[in-house]
Amino acid sequence: MKTEKELSGTETGPLGASLKADGVNFAIFSQYAQEVFLLLFDDSGSPATDTIKLNRAGNIWHIFVKGIKAGQLYGYKVNGEYNPGEGKRFNPYKLLIDPYAKAVSGKFKDRENLIFSYDVNAQGRDMVMDRRDNTLIVPKSIVIDDTFDWQGDRALDISMDRLIIYETHVKGFTAHPSSGVKNPGTYLGFIEKIPYLKKLGINAVELMPVHEFFVRNELLEKNLTDYWGYNTIGFFAPELSYSTQSQLGCQVGEFKTLVKELHKSGIEVILDVVYNHTGEGNHLGPTLSLKGIDNPTYYALAQNSDQAQEPYRFYLNDTGCGNTLNVENPTTMDLVLDSLRYWAGTMHVDGFRVDLASILARVKGQFSQSSLFFEAVSKDPILSKVKMIAEPWDLSTYQVGNFPQGWSEWNGKFRDTARKFLKGDKAQAGEMAKRLTGSADLYQSDGRKPYNSINFVTCHDGFTLRDLYSYNEKHNEANLEDNRDGSNDNNSWNCGVEGETQQEDVLRLRKQMIKNALCCLLFSSGTPMILYGDELMRTQKGNNNPYCQDSELSWLNWDNFKQYPDILDFCIKAIAFRKSWPLLRRRRFFMGESTNGHDIPDISWFGRRLDTPHWDSPLLRTICYQLAGHEAPSIVGEYNIFFVYNMNYRAAVVHLPYFDGLKWYRMVDTSQKPGEDFRSYDKRRLLRRQDRHYCAGRSVNVLWGGS
């Protein structure tokens, strides 16, 4: 042990680096370690100033170091058995990031394979320890002071039925030169675009991962990077590269500032969090943190009974990312829960979208509604009050509709059905009717509500909305994987020409299809989620998997506003329309019967001649339904909204229901030119014929009915 610091070993304290008035308490978990050393640094690229052996209390290794303050750099080295066949990968030559670190000092830059605990050139690969020291090249953990002037910031508590979610990427939102912000691609740069989000009508942003992530060497060697960030190595640390890097640890305060400013503008913050795997990869991946601290505890190891000499060498890979966190272990579960509490409490975020959430809900390896994770979240005084949204699938299971009360879900069935129906596929109308009305078949029986369905047509994972109607096939050549990566099942349609074109009829049809999709999304029961830039015709040039593209291919080009103001205007009006009419934001499922003593059912379905729809017909491509309302902010009395989704390539004449005193007005017709395609309530147009309405092929029409 090399130190002149004053030490105390009496306080185990919470895991991580806990700042006190007279010093810092360090604590780390390891069940199988033999020794743990804390290394202190004056700067990231220099040797340690102090090396301190930690005390052990059960499986907690700890030490209190007097006299050090916020900003102190540190890391751990853990000594123990190196026996990968038994799951133990301790290597005392490798510096490790604290799993509870609240910030790190830099990104990994490793040109000599020093971050691997094994000799990459040895014939036995990971079975042979690498004894080279990597202390100088490993980013350091930073002691952080949680103090921040929140200026009275409080949770907005926007109800789910009122939420309009905008999925976006912190860097990609403002990195393009056209953004015009002072600090492009950063937390602070994002703040400058909050007025745009307000104008659009957004009241919640879902940020793609902002936890500190690792960029794999094989990507860097190709001049690519891990742009999306689904490769976490720091569950408590905001991503450094999204900060101004003006001073050590500034990413923490800058992220808090972003949250505070969004809240001031009435916009909630939902984080996309990745607790199903880490950036340490499989048995041939690097050793950065958990793998070198306590590999058998933190990772689910694949029991290999066929190889008795190395039964725990390999990792379970239900995530498709090389490893799977062992959340059935209480210590690993505590890591996840502690991280969630930290971001909800200390960092003031409003909710979480949990990536591959079904991984976290396992009992004996199988998805279960009675899992420890669900129980812990529901009983937690902090987490039970925030929004929890699941990505309800992983490589081994698909659990849409099966999460418990208190959870909302990315509704993959809405996306898939909407894409098929909108491009005119056969036998989709009946299924689409379920998705338009909140997916009661998925969420009603267990007591959940329509708003628990997070509806989306596009998300980060796949085509943008513009590309959805510009490409039949993926074009991922820029990822340098010979176009093998990304899904081949996109349910897209290029409207007649693959990719970019100058053909006016094709361009007009593509815009019409985009408007159809926006109507389908924003007028459906459930909580809508818009992918950033869809309202500005953002394109990825047919790339449906730009996870490695930190470039203009992924960034939002703000100059698109000049070229496509009509789509932005339509989206703004569609969001405002949703907000204006409570019928579109119901907290209960439609019953198909009259409510509150009124004669008209809350929802009525019609064929084109007011007959019963032929739901079983595979040729049915036109959906007509009426919603009956009895209250709205702008009117007094009863009103009706009549929807026609005509996805047949032929025009349709639709007969309209009639009641005494009822008059029908056109508000939306996606086949019309800009300005005529969406009319406000004050400028609604009275139909010349009140008994029927002409609907162009591949169009959405919305009629308002009242006295």
Helix and strand topology:
Blueprint: E1 7-8, E2 16-20, E3 23-29, E4 35-41, E5 50-53, E6 55-57, E7 60-66, E8 73-79, E9 82-83, E10 88-89, E11 141-142, E12 165-168, H1 170-174, H2 187-191, H3 194-200, E13 204-207, E14 211-213, H4 217-220, E15 232-238, H5 250-264, E16 268-273, H6 290-298, H7 330-345, E17 351-354, E18 362-363, E19 366-367, H8 372-379, E20 387-390, E21 407-410, H9 412-422, H10 429-436, H11 440-443, E22 453-455, H12 465-468, H13 504-522, E23 527-531, H14 560-563, H15 565-580, E24 603-606, E25 622-629, E26 639-646, E27 652-655, E28 663-669, E29 685-686, E30 692-695, E31 699-706
Parallel strand pairs: 12-13, 12-23, 13-16, 16-17, 17-20, 20-21, 21-22, 22-23
Antiparallel strand pairs: 1-7, 2-3, 3-7, 4-5, 4-8, 6-7, 8-11, 9-10, 14-15, 18-19, 24-25, 25-26, 26-31, 27-30, 28-29, 28-31
Helix pairs in contact: 9-10, 13-15
Provide a brief overview of the structure.
With 707 residues, the protein is of the alpha/beta class. Helices cover 19% and strands 20% of the residues.
Distance between the termini: 85 Å
The biggest sheet amounts to: 8 strands, parallel, barrel
Strand order of the largest sheet: 12-13-16-17-20-21-22-23
Helix content: 10-25%
Mean pLDDT: 95
How many H/I helical runs?
Answer: 15
Number of strands: 31
- Compute the CA-based radius of gyration: 27 Å
Q: What would the principal axes of the Cα set say about the shape?
A: elongated
